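step=encode ok
step=design start
structure_in=
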């Protein structure tokens, strides 16, 4: 399994599995079925009511034309196909993917897929280290396989939480699954390497985001946040 490590803006390295060719093809085919179904339905509805004006057809077909750009921009790097296969577009420098990145990927689909029937994309994905098609290379992105996101479990970083547990930071419930994954990764890195820098960086980010003041040691603080998040989101 080909993997890459991306350094986030919180200075935490996260390892992702690069999306395989089969997965990307599967996601593309599913998206193509959705686009095709939309076009057929629109054509049927318009013709059934006697509308055959060219510009109206073009207007209703625009969502299909911009499908990949719109879905990735609105679904945080995913389309329906990518979501079904657990894939997502990410930037290699760890920053959030911008609209400009999505536009670049979408424009170069013309070269990657449309003109060459996908041959250029397949070749580029197969030979590049990060599994990138031409659009990804230009945008500084790639497509990765997401691990299943769920509330933190005892076998990951914390012990089983008692039913009478009293959360210390109730605002921890507002954290996103991505935030919890960053905390988990920072603790895992500290446990395996002793590198405290990711711990310190993510601790400050969490305190700032949740507007928390605490004198707890950073490691204890993060474990407490994980326990509070897990408990509050299981109620």
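sequence_out=
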């Amino acid at each position: 399994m080909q993997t890459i490590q991306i350094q986030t803006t919180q200075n935490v390295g996260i390892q992702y599995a690069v999306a395989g060719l089969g997965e990307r093809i599967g996601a593309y085919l599913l998206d193509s079925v959705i686009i095709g179904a939309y076009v057929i339905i629109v054509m049927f509805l318009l013709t059934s009511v006697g509308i055959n004006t060219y510009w109206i057809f073009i207007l209703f077909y625009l969502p299909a034309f911009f499908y990949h750009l719109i879905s990735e921009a609105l679904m945080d790097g995913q389309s329906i196909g990518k979501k079904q296969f657990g894939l997502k577009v990410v930037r290699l420098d760890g920053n959030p993917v911008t609209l400009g990145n999505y536009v670049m990927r979408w424009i170069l689909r013309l070269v990657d897929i449309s003109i060459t029937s996908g041959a250029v994309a397949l070749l580029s994905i197969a030979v590049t280290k990060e599994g990138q098609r031409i659009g990804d290379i230009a945008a500084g992105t790639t497509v990765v396989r997401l691990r299943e996101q769920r509330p933190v479990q005892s076998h990951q970083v914390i012990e089983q939480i008692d039913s009478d547990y009293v959360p210390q930071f109730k605002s921890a419930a507002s954290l996103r699954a991505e935030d919890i994954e960053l905390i988990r990764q920072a603790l895992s890195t500290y446990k395996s390497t002793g590198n405290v820098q990711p711990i310190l960086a993510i601790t400050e980010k969490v305190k700032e985001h949740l507007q928390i003041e605490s004198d707890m040691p950073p490691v204890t603080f993060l474990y407490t946040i994980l326990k509070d998040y897990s408990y509050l989101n299981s109620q």
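step=design ok
step=annotate ok -> The mean pLDDT is 86.
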